[in-house]
Design a protein that fits this description.
The chain is mainly alpha-helical. It is 51% helix and 5% strand. The protein is built from 30 helices and nine strands. The strands form three sheets. A five-stranded parallel beta sheet has the order 2-3-4-1-5, with helices on both faces. A two-stranded antiparallel sheet has the order 6-7. Helix 11 links the parallel strand 3 and strand 4. 45% of the residues are buried. About 5% of the residues have low confidence.
């Protein structure tokens, strides 16, 4: 059970407490679905919510930790967790569900018997369960531990089966006669006697027909809901009970919740009160979660951010009248960590790591799992090995081990790819590596870079990456993305229209690392891919972005000379300095095949400042002679696009070079001097 609050969960906790607070008579409750890509901290948040709810009835179930279960089996496991005893609180009892489970899941055979015999047989079974429980309580203290062991997929319950355990542990103080009357009366079906309904349930249990199994699920899950509703009517409480369901996008993970929603709809139609079960579920695949429609969002699903989510927001968006049941769901997309939150994680690990938090955040963009792995690597480099900025520049080469079965350590970037893309096929992983070369993900598909792949990969890659929430709005390209101050101030220069989605920057970085390790001229190599993308953009007519993206891929191919020549020409053509700066940053966002100079035994490579001069001399000798300041500026801004080239503690290492080159350009006779001086200030230290 966690004892330290995870970072970045404040708004999720606020939403949880808003919905968990019970009002007199009860109210409609949403099915909260926390969505996030692999490694976004969903399970960690769910465990924290379980900790916050640990003094009230709650249960945790992980659909990914056990073979798929039918909905009534999930209900039974939740009931066992919810029936745990708490001081000065009456235990939640499940007489209807327990009786139904006993009839459906034991070796009782009621077919062909007369009602009197059926009653006697059922009472004997209940008494046997009660007597077994009393003997078990005398011989073991395991009963007291049941309330603590919430994850019922992982907890082995010794002795008798789950059905009898629900009867024993869930109803330890309830006389058999009371349970008999309470449970039996609920099964009455119009003119039919309750015993007839139980006999029918017993017959259905012996059938393997899907429609018969569905009836069992429907009846027993309805009994589960009615037991909860009835208990809270008789015993008013200040909090709803909580079901925490992890990985509902696993096989059959949605079936229980879909059935719960249908039961709530049926109860509402009958004028019954609201049940007190607050469900918080998690999923890494947005396609596994229903919800209101919204264009331009992952799988066209309306997602709320944690800071915008609230019970009132969910309530006011319910359509009246509702044409579907999707309104019951409330999808909330988890956010990444902010830089201050990464700094807090660094402080918790070691005070010496605080100065690395900016690098960790810029590399991971706050992706929780990746930030933790990078912090562990930084701890080994800085604290254990006494390394500095030169060693941190090679942090992606640091060997780490993945959780799970033991295997040999691997470079951090390879470990990240293996973990983050575990849910994709091998073909999809290779295709994604190639698509990472494009600035916008859809450009890669439109350019035909996957034409050599099988049809299934081409058809599913975009869909699956979108559903797994790896496509995000682009980060503004300006001084803020190069180590300076300010962000978004050049967005007014962007062309009209919605910005194309891009791969999450950290995932794209580790994919580009893999692409750079391929033979460059191979069909899926760096040169081949960027040349294909550049050619497609050059052939496209219309939006200005195609011109900039063609130049972007030229720079990725190390064509620095022609990039400087183009920017020198545009310097006098464009009507404003902001527009020129927008093009400068858009083009120099191009990835480098070798962003950090290779290291070896006793060799840590050139510093970023030294490498600016080396690259300029090597890749753009003509431009260096004709446009010295502009060549140095373009090279420095290009290098600064990778966070590993701006590691220094106080000010990023290339800031002084970039500021000096802007001053040099401002000294030339033209009308844009003021804008260039203002841009230089964004890279200069402030007191």
């Amino acid at each position: 059970m966690p004892t330290e609050r995870p970072q970045g969960v404040k708004d999720v906790v606020r939403l949880f407490e808003e919905c968990r607070t019970r009002v007199s008579g009860g109210r409609e409750l949403p099915v909260i679905a926390l969505l996030g890509g692999r490694g976004s901290g969903k399970s960690t948040i769910l465990r924290w919510l379980g900790y916050l709810a640990s003094n009230r009835p709650n249960a945790l179930y992980d659909f990914a930790s056990a073979p798929p279960k039918r909905p009534h089996e999930v209900a039974a496991r939740l009931a066992l967790g919810l029936s745990a005893r708490f001081p000065r609180q009456p235990a939640v009892l499940f007489p209807r569900l327990a009786l139904g489970l006993l009839v459906a899941n034991t070796t009782l055979s009621l077919g062909g018997a007369d009602p009197r015999t059926v009653r006697a047989e059922l009472k004997r079974a209940l008494r046997h369960a009660k007597e077994s429980n009393e003997a078990y309580e005398r011989s073991s203290d395991a009963v007291e531990a049941i309330g603590v062991l919430q994850d019922l997929n992982l907890v082995p319950l010794p002795g008798i089966n789950l059905v009898l355990k629900l009867v024993q542990f869930g109803l330890p103080r309830l006389p058999v006669t009371v349970m008999w009357r309470t449970g039996l009366s609920w099964y009455a079906d119009g003119p039919h006697r309750p015993v007839d309904a139980l006999m029918r349930l017993n017959e259905l249990a012996e059938s393997a027909a899907p429609e018969d199994q569905d009836q069992i699920d429907r009846l027993l899950c309805a009994a589960f809901v009615e037991d909860l509703r009835d208990h809270f009517l008789r015993h008013p409480r200040d909090r709803e009970c909580v079901a925490l369901l992890d990985n509902i996008d696993a096989p059959r993970g949605r079936e229980f919740l879909d059935l719960l929603v249908r039961i709530r709809e049926a109860n509402a139609a009958l004028g019954l009160g609201h049940d007190p079960l607050l469900v918080v579920a998690t999923a890494a695949n947005a396609r596994g979660v229903p919800g209101p429609y919204a264009p331009h969002l992952p799988t066209e699903l309306r997602l709320r951010t944690p800071q915008d989510a609230s019970y009132e927001d969910w309530l006011t968006t319910i359509p009246r009248p509702a044409s579907t049941v999707k309104w019951h769901w409330y999808p909330v997309k988890l956010r990444d960590l902010t830089e201050p939150e990464v700094t807090t994680l660094a402080e918790r690990t070691a005070a010496a790591l605080v100065h690395t938090s900016s690098l960790i955040h810029r590399l991971s963009y706050g992706h929780p799992w990746s930030a933790h792995v990078l912090l562990d690597a930084a701890y080994a480099i800085v604290v254990e090995r006494r390394g500095g900025a030169a060693e941190l520049r090679h942090i992606l080469d640091f060997a780490v081990s993945l959780p799970g079965p033991p295997e040999d350590p691997m470079p951090l970037d390879a470990a990240a790819r293996r973990y983050l893309l575990r849910d994709l096929s091998e073909g999809q992983r290779v295709g994604l590596r190639i698509c990472a070369a494009a600035r916008a993900f859809d450009s890669a598909l439109d350019a035909g870079v996957l034409e050599e792949f099988d049809q299934l990969t081409k058809d599913t890659l975009r869909r699956d990456i979108d559903a797994r929430l790896w496509l995000v709005p682009p980060v503004p390209e300006d001084a803020g993305s190069r180590g300076g101050r300010g962000s978004g101030y050049l967005e007014h220069c962007r062309e009209e229209g919605r910005p194309a989605l891009v791969l999450q920057p950290w995932l794209r970085l580790v994919l580009l690392e893999a692409l750079s390790q391929e033979p460059p001229d191979a069909p899926s190599g760096w040169i081949t891919t960027h040349e294909k993308l550049r050619g497609w953009h050059q052939r496209e007519q219309g939006p200005r972005r195609h011109v900039l993206d063609a130049r972007y891929h030229s720079l990725a191919l190390n064509e620095l000379d022609c990039t400087v020549a183009y920017l020198a020409e545009r310097f006098s053509e464009l009507p404003s300095t902001d527009q020129w700066l927008y093009e400068l940053y858009a083009i120099t966002a191009a990835p480098m095949r070798v962003p950090v100079t290779p290291s070896g035994p006793g060799l840590l490579g050139s510093s970023p400042s030294d490498r600016v001069r080396e690259l300029a001399r090597h890749l753009a000798p003509a431009s260096l002679d004709e446009h010295w300041a502009l060549t140095m500026l373009v090279t420095a801004v290009w290098l600064a696009a990778d966070p590993r080239n701006r590691v220094a503690h106080s000010a990023p290492e290339l800031n002084s070079t970039i500021a000096a080159m802007f001053h040099q350009l401002a000294a030339l006779p033209h009308s844009g001097a003021t804008g260039l001086l203002r841009e230089a200030e964004r890279y200069e230290p402030r007191p």
